[in-house]
Design a protein that fits this description.
Layout (H helix, E strand, L loop, with lengths): L1 H36 L5 E2 L9 H13 L2 H12 L2 E6 L2 E6 L2 H10 L13 H4 L9 H15 L1
Helix pairs in contact: 2-3
GO molecular function, one term: metal ion binding
Keywords: Iron, Metal-binding, Monooxygenase, Oxidoreductase
Cofactor: heme
Length: 150
């Protein structure tokens, strides 16, 4: 019995240590980027579910069903600000309509963004233009250009 409690406490301790270390590393990375590029922290969306952010997901799902998704987004922009941070299932997401912010992201961190991996057809279809990203796509471009001339 004591062994199980010890293992459980050890697991909780390690989990908390890893969590707070990630938070600390994230904060340091933001501070370094803020100093280098002159960034400010985005305002936070006032979630009712601060752990997973499911309240906002439900609200957006309802808005999509009613055909007012863009209206909801504009309400949030008007209420919170032109740039705000939300929690999407535990992941920080920054929403912005400020052109300057979008330009900065495109100019400074373009390589960090791409389309998500789509590996569900890879075993059936193999590598292709629709399933590749980055350097792999650029190597297929000459073939695509030849086919597009036909």
């Amino acid at each position: 019995m004591h062994f199980i409690i010890g293992v459980l406490l050890y697991t909780v301790f390690i989990s908390l240590f890893v969590y707070f270390r990630q938070k600390c590393n994230s904060y340091r990375a933001f501070e370094a980027a803020a100093k280098q590029y002159g960034c400010k922290r985005a305002k936070k969306y006032p979630h009712h579910d601060s752990i997973w952010g499911t309240d906002l997901v439900r609200e957006r799902t309802k808005a999509v069903g009613e055909g007012r998704q863009m209206g909801l987004f504009m309400e949030q922009i008007n209420k919170i600000g032109k740039t705000f941070e939300e929690n999407f299932f535990g992941t920080k997401v920054i929403n912005t309509v400020e052109v300057r912010n979008i330009q900065q992201v495109c100019a400074l961190a373009f390589e960090d963004y791409g389309k998500p991996a789509q590996n569900f057809f890879k075993s059936f279809l193999g590598d292709g233009v629709l399933s590749l990203d980055g350097k792999a796509v650029s190597s297929t471009m000459p073939h695509v250009l030849i086919l597009s001339r036909c």
